[in-house]
Sequence to fold (413 residues):
Amino acid sequence: MTRSYDVIVAGGGPAGATAAHDLAKAGRSVLLIDPDGRIKPCGGAIPTRCIRDFDLPPKLIKARIHSARMVSPTGKTVGMDIGDIGYVGMVDREEFDPWLRTRAVEAGAERIIGRFKSVEQQADGSMLVCVTGSDETTHRVQSTVLIGADGANSAVRRAAFGPDKKPPYVFAYHEIVESPGSPPQPADMPGAEPGAGMPNETSDFRPDRCDVIYDGSISPDFYGWVFPHGAQTSIGCGTAVKGHSLKDATQMLRRRAGLDGARTIRREGAPLPLKPMRKWHSGTGVVLVGDAAGVVAPSSGEGIYYAMLCGRMGAGAALEALRAQSLAPLAKVRRRFMKEHGKVFFVLGLLQHFWYRSDKRREQFVAMCADADVQRLTWEAYLNKRLVRREPMAHMRVLVKDIQQLLGLTARP
Fold:
């Protein structure tokens, strides 16, 4: 027999696990399909709004970041303290994603370890979904709605929209290493490399600070990072430029940060979408969310909060569709998301386009980050996920300074 569900969710990352949780909590039968064991390369930063909106417990927050340090191509640094308006929470995806999946199951979702294989539209309007299980057995399940939350290389997207429909990418790579001062991890720990102990004596690592490196030798079109996660630290970079070695660039980052002697726990790489797809709804019962829909912020590469929000919006639209016995509400997911966050994505896209184009521009960009207005507006927008409208003069000052930097009219620091 073919088992039927109200909704099938393909992908158990932040988007899919959140969608499955919300649907199950609302009393709907939901199947969560997830391959298990995959850890996405991710800096792990989430704003305080994410912690608040999705009721995340303190145990998931491995570090509280109170400042960022921007590093220019010439090595000049600018500190950006958050102050008293909040903090950036750092999570480890190795623990974070499984916790979200467990929460969904505890709410009533059924979970199968496997991968989405195909979807076939049925005469009655439902969808027949084939899943390849962990033992390579094929399972056939049926639903009214299929939520594609299976990442940047989404198989659901390919099946519903065709292989040519995909967002632009950068490719991200990072290495998880032991943080300075943390208890050494066992040499036989899965994934850990022998040898290597503490960082070298030149390290200026701070466990409450994220370093963001804007340097063409690290990334010609994006940035590099050193993000502490408590006992572990993520060091990595991203680029869309073919031929640029992300592994070599990461080794350079480790040497510069004084972390080349830290034990490497694991290495991960994956594509990172940087622009929302124009269509998230197939016209049938399929809707995309999270990375599958291309919802990662330009310029910053931030994706966890937006993925979880997408998952929640997708679940809400699915509930509307089931109640109305109409698939029309699924088309509203993208409109709702872009209405709330489209302007931020547009601004961040412009920022990346203008400031990441060359080392000269990157040098100017880091210099501009020293401005008090830039810092305050940046942190308030990031932590609360909205543009700050109450300070129009601050926005005007930033615009004027932005133009001055572009035209080279500002004095060099």
Observations:
- Confidence is low (pLDDT under 50) at residues 185-202, 392-400, 403-407.
